[in-house]
Amino acid sequence: MTQSTQERMTLPSDQDATGRTLGAEEIEAVAEAIRSGTLTSTKGSFTKKLEKDFAHLYGASAAHACASGTAAIHCAIAALDPEPGDEVVTTSITDMGALTPILYQGAIPVFADVDPRTLNVTAETIERVLSPRTRAIIVTHLFGNPCDMGPILALANARGIPVVEDCAQAFLTRDTTGLVGTLGAIGCFSLQQGKHITTGEGGVVVSNDAALARRMFLFINKAWGYGDANPDHYFIAPNYRISELQGACATAQLPKLEGSVRSRVDAAKRFAPQVEGLAGVTNPVVRDGTVHTYWKYALNVDPAVVPGGPAALGKRLSARGIASAPRYIQKPAFRCQVFRDQVTFGKSRWPFTLASKDAVDYAQERFPGTFAGLESVLVLPWNERYTDAHVDFIARSVRECHAEVLSGS
Prior knowledge:
Blueprint: H1 24-36, H2 46-58, E1 62-66, H3 69-80, E2 87-91, H4 100-104, E3 108-112, H5 123-127, E4 134-140, H6 149-159, E5 163-166, E6 174-175, E7 178-179, E8 186-190, E9 203-207, H7 210-220, H8 244-253, H9 257-275, E10 281-282, E11 297-301, H10 309-318, E12 325-326, H11 337-340, H12 368-376, E13 377-380, H13 388-407
Parallel strand pairs: 2-3, 2-4, 4-5, 5-8
Antiparallel strand pairs: 1-9, 6-7, 8-9, 10-11, 11-13, 12-13
Helix pairs in contact: 1-8, 2-8, 3-7, 9-13, 10-13
């Protein structure tokens, strides 16, 4: 089939209005904030409402808005207050924004391998890299698919290690025991442009631990004790506040979240049977009793069965207007220059100078799941604005492109 005769359809995109739920409610809320003349969240009401509503939605005792998902992770690590050279176990497949905060706090990211099918860390992969210097564990619920938290929490609790949940891609995702973000010590969320709800940039942290919540509040606010009898700047901290414009937008976005998630899940349920049984192609693994909320839809494409693997299938999908992402990321996080060459503060290499040899051993044989997973994952765009026609078009395109790759046409 030539490109000129291939079916094409313009899909809703989370990079513009076609794939976002932004509308009159957000416009009115932002306009109200502007009319008030108070755009700082320290004096306004919108950000405070967002925090109250977010905490209520998650059944958390505290939620604090911050500047980004990266800031959320930074707040979490700062709240745990590691000593220089302490280790924070994290995943080999994540955004750099979830890693640099560890370094900024003087700790060492230690990468755990992942399950090659889910690309999530597991209790087994985490346990392999724990050491007496482990101060925290960060789990990332990739694509909206929950990590298996029961065994992870059992492992962490037995050793007295707090767990931070990176839920940037996992709004209203459920593990077997509850909403992710509320299962560990701290949950971190992103309101970036492409997330389930958005304020362009922004983040939220939640916790049921009063001491951790207090320290995150302080960290967002330059460690200034707003509301204290004798406030001071108690420790080193940035200004990670959002503005009332973002707070206003988020207060209007939040009531739309459950509908957006439901739409994504329904679209996935329609899509999955249409590609089931394709040789070398498998749907995401979703454990019984969990809710995958599909930030993206991650197919597994076996290169041993499908010639050229995800790249070959993705190239053909691209010709039909479906911007898939073979591999998701081109290389594991530990192969990025900041880790490979230990590029940190000036020429100091600090805090890597404090690291043990094992903590910075990035030999490929230590990460079989990571490399196998990246070789076989094809990430499809996903959106709450998809109609049945959009879903059927993507499924039909996958089937037809798969047939073309297998036949070599």
